[in-house]
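Support request, please re-run this one:
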Amino acid sequence: MKILVVEDDPMLRDGLTDLLAGAGHEVDAVADGASGARQGREQSYDLVLLDLMLPRLDGIEVCRRLRTVRPTLPILMLTARGAEEEKVKGLRAGADDYVTKPFGARELLARVDALGRRAKAAPAEPEVIEADGCAFDLGRCLARRDGDEVSLTAREVGILRWLHRHRKRGVTRGELLEQVWGTVGTLQTRTVDMTIAKLRQKIESDPANPRIIVTVTGVGYAWAEDAED
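Re-run finished. Output below.
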């Protein structure tokens, strides 16, 4: 597997790199959260080993950002002993599993292998989607229409993924807040509406009459039934 290690402690980072490489994995390692979020979005990995306490961006936010863009990417979080509340936050942010420091090499490798097997068994989500003449390269956060290319933000990609995954039904604003923003779904805010309005400007041939992301009165939004080419 190709694994990204995000750990600020240089001794532990080097130790994890050596351990995983010795087990036959290809390993990249970075020392802060911002670098981990950027590299995890821009490159393709089979698993991310993510420390909870990181400089520049903590592990919770890194997990949310990676999960928004790559919802099926296995994330194994490293947590401090006794930090139960932080473990819960990590799992709610999208982590698949956690290992408590200090941990044994055999336990870590077993959890890595288990997540790898689980990921292989799960059906892959599409990275490229075409709808109403617009092509979305979700892995690269890009949209193309009539030869023009536009960049998409991580949250815009998250919205597209969630709506497409649940295209048989309408999706509420609260659901999008929870699944894409990682916040409380009951929060009273216009953030979802404003983000979708900006997204429509990028992807719709006529934003005033959307044919990809449609409004469902009394519910929220949906992937249009006839959107897919």
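The chain has two domains: 2-121, 128-223. The helical segments are 10-22, 33-42, 59-69, 84-93, 105-121, 154-165, 173-181, 191-203.
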